[in-house]
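Open question from group meeting: does this chain pack into something compact, or does most of it stay loose? Before anyone orders reagents, we agreed to write out a predicted structure and look at it together. Recording both the input and the output here so the notebook holds the full record.
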Amino acid sequence: MFGLLNKKPLAIKKPDDESFRRGFMAQLPNETSVEYIMDLWRKHPFSFKVAGSRKTCLGNYIFKNGRHYISVNGDSNPYSFLITLVHEIAHQHVKINQGLFKRMPEPHGNEWKLHFKMLMGPLLKGSVFPNDILEVLIPHMRNPAASSTRDHALVKVLAKYSHTKEETGVYLADIDDGNVFSFKGRKFKKLYNRRTRILAECVDTKNRYTIPGIAQVEVE
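C-alpha cells returned:
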C-alpha cells in the first residue's frame, strides 16, 4: 500500500504539449503561425492528424462523441496547409456556436465564412505569408469559397511554394469549361463546376463523371 502511495502520479498532457507543437512546426510556415494555431487550440482543443494524400479533399473536420477531429493532408505546402487548417478550425467554431443560430448552418454558409474571415484576419501579414500570396489571399478572404481550389489565382500562387513535383501540376478547377484534359489515362471534356467537384464528360464514351477540383490533370 505504501509503495503505491509513494508512486508519482501519471503525467497529464497539457495543451502546450511539446510533441503537439513540434507536429505543427513540421507543417506550418513559421513560428508566428505555430503560436497562433497553438493559441486557438488552447482555447478550443481538437484532435489533430496529418493525413496522407487524399484526392477528394485537402482537409476535414468531424464532430463525434463530443470531440472535435481535424485532419489536413500532409502533402500540402506550408502555406496551403495553414489556410486549410484554419478553414477546418472555422468549421469547429461554427459547431461550438451552433446553439446561437436559429437554424442549422450551411457547411460553407455565412456563419462559416464569418468565422473563417475572423480566424484568418490576424494571419494576413508579411510575417506569415509572402507578399505575392497576400496580394491574392486578402481579396480571396473577403468572400471565401468552400474550397481554395475554386480561386484560380490563389491556386497558382500557392503552387509556386509547393515542395513536391506532383503539387505543381494543373488543377482541374483551374482550367476553363470546355477544355479537354487527360486524367488517369482517359480523356475528358470539362463541363462545369459543382462546388468542390467538376462535371466532366468522357470523350470516348460520352459518360459523365464528377471529378474533384483538386485533381491534377494534363490539358490537351
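Observations to bring back to the group:
The beta strands are 47-51, 59-64, 67-73, 170-171, 180-183, 186-194, 197-202, 208-212, 216-219.
The chain is about 35% helix and 20% strand.
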